[in-house]
Structure formats: structure tokens, C-alpha cells
Amino acid sequence: MTKSKQLALVFLLIFLAAMSRLVIHPFNFTPIIAMSIFAGFYINKKYFVIVPLLAMFVGDFFIGFYDFKLMFPVYLSIAITFFIAHVMRSNKKWYAIFGVSITSSFVFFILTNLAVWYFSGWYSQNFIGLQECFVAAIPFFRNSLVGDLFYSFLFFGVYETVSILSISVSKKLNFKNQEI
User: Fold this and answer.
1) What is the biggest distance separating any 2 CA atoms in the chain, rounded to whole angstroms?
2) Most buried one in 30, 71, 108, 174, CB count within 10 A?
3) Can you list the domains of the chain with their CATH numbers?
4) Could you tell me where the DSSP H helices lie in the chain?
């Protein structure tokens, strides 16, 4: 598969991930962190962190924006995820993808829940309130973790399958062209 086709497939998967936020889904079972992981592994320019952030912004445009103090940690975790994956991009083994997915889920969980605890006014500003916030977020974390793992392996699997099929078809076409 040519570089331009590879890049087109990467952007198509990112676009589909962004648009999937518009479909009804369990809380936090979304492909957004997985999209950022995938982009970090396959887009080799650091400044392309804008791609997953822009995809998130487009989704938020349709879904609706909310308090910036709570949105910022979400976008920050997407950027951090991209850079973690970008650093690991030379190691596209299943266990590296698994590790980046789990790490990214924890980054998202910690940053977003610290922001909810600090800015929302729902919890007291002490250690008890912080504990209550994180305990209340555990069901959302479970969905995030499962969703991040599921979608990461889905994106990488689809990409690699299409790449392999493309190479196989290309070899067959070249073989047939040589026979003529």
C-alpha cells in the first residue's frame, strides 16, 4: 500500500472514531483515546497531535461544549496519549499497544477526575472529597478501559488487515501483469 493510501486509511479511521461519538454508546465506552493512540503510532509528525484534538473538537461541536475547566483535561489527556503512542511507534507489538492503552486510560481517569473534584463543586475540597470523586468514577473507568482496549485493537487490526490484503492483491495483480 502506498504512503498516501496508508495516510488516507489512518485519517479515515480517525474520522470514523470522531463520528462514532454521535452514536448512542455506554458512558465512556468511546474510541477517542484509542483514536489518539492509533494516530500517535501511525502519524510520524509530532505536530499532528492536532488531528485527534481536532477530531474531538468536531465531535464536541455536534454534541455540545461544556465547562472549559472540565474540557481541558480531556483534551490534555488526548494529547498526552498521542505523545505516549508517538514515542512507542517503533514498537507496534500487541503488548505495546496494550500497555499504551492501559496507561492512557489511567492518564484520562486521573486528569479528568482531578478536574471534576477540583472544579465541579460536587465534592468537598479535601482528601475525603477526592476519594469520593475517584470512587464514584470507577464504573466510568471500567468502561473507558474496556473501550480503549477494544477500539485500539480494532483500529490496529483493521489497519493491519487492510494493509496485508492490499499487499496481497497488489502482488497478484503484478503477477497477472507479468503473465500477459
Assistant:
1) 77
2) 108
3) 3-163 (1.10.1760)
4) 3-20, 32-42, 50-63, 68-88, 94-119, 127-136, 138-179
